From TrEMBL:
<feature type="domain" description="ERAP1-like C-terminal">
    <location>
        <begin position="2"/>
        <end position="210"/>
    </location>
</feature>
<protein>
    <recommendedName>
        <fullName>ERAP1-like C-terminal domain-containing protein</fullName>
    </recommendedName>
</protein>
<dbReference type="InterPro" id="IPR024571">
    <property type="entry name" value="ERAP1-like_C_dom"/>
</dbReference>
<dbReference type="Pfam" id="PF11838">
    <property type="entry name" value="ERAP1_C"/>
</dbReference>
């Protein structure tokens, strides 16, 4: 539990990487328990990383240390990945205040800016989505547009629009690049949005792959399709596999620790 008071960016960055691996390896029935435990650990750090007064001081007059700036990103990312409720509440409140011109968007640290707007967009508030979408269209610099597009990708109700934006943004016409970007999109949006994803790929496959055999490269991103998408998934990608329920033993050589069960009352 010492990490609750940890302030080192290097430590939080390492924790973020390892916890991601642990979480994927846990059997499904224990993931919620593990998630609540990590929420318990990361919440104090998240509150420190989202201290708006510190943001204001850093923007207007105080020079922050490299660590103080760097620690925000892994803490914010980890908090979002383990679904800490405070992340969505904080991000949507800041976003709405920006929209209402009661919050200066310039003070949002660059380390959390993209993810903060991503989380705000994920609330599916139409005003927030429209604001970020218009921001994307107003940007002229390619790198800045890419960051805003990354935030837009966190919406799960604009699937076809977002996929078409990825296609349009691929100005070089690189099929290899487009293929990777769609696979990354599927990591977050599959299987909930499988119908729109499959429809898009089927319609635009000539822009995505050189020939149909390359569609097999999407199999690892299309695991466990729901019944409504299963036949179409098989038709487009070929054989698909069911993701393993429990890889913890394979990854770590032991079963998930009973410690989680025995101590869960401490953080629930």
């Amino acid at each position: 539990d010492y990490v609750k008071n940890e302030t080192s960016a290097l430590v939080w960055d390492a924790l973020y990487s390892h916890i991601e691996l642990y979480y994927r390896s846990f059997p499904k029935e224990m993931r919620d328990m593990f998630q609540k435990y990590v929420q318990f650990l990361v919440k104090p750090a998240f509150l420190r990383a989202t201290d708006v007064q510190a943001w204001e001081k850093a923007f207007f007059r105080v020079v922050e240390s490299v660590n103080d700036r760097a620690v925000r990103e892994p803490v914010f990312d980890l908090s979002w990945d383990v679904k800490l409720p405070a992340v969505k509440t904080f991000s949507s409140e800041v976003a709405l205040q920006v929209l209402n011109r009661s919050f200066d968007a310039r003070i949002i640290p660059s380390e959390v800016q993209t993810k903060l707007w991503c989380v705000a967009v994920s609330t599916e508030n139409p005003e927030i989505f429209e604001y970020v979408y218009n921001t994307y269209n107003d940007k002229k610099d390619a790198k800045e547009r890419a960051k805003v597009l990354e935030s837009l990708m966190c919406s799960k109700t604009h699937t076809t629009l977002l996929l078409n934006m990825i296609l349009k943004n691929n100005v070089a016409g690189s099929k290899a690049t487009l293929k990777v970007e769609i696979q990354q999109f599927m990591l977050y949006h599959w299987p909930d949005e499988c119908e729109d994803i499959l429809s898009f790929i089927e319609k635009n496959k000539d822009n995505i792959v050189e020939d149909d055999s390359e569609l097999e490269e999407f199999q690892d991103y299309a695991v466990n399709p729901p019944t409504i998408c299963k036949n179409k998934t098989l038709e487009i990608f070929g054989n698909i596999t069911e993701s393993p329920v429990n890889t913890f033993y394979d990854d770590f050589g032991q079963e998930p620790l009973n410690w989680l069960v025995n101590h869960q009352n401490e953080w629930i």
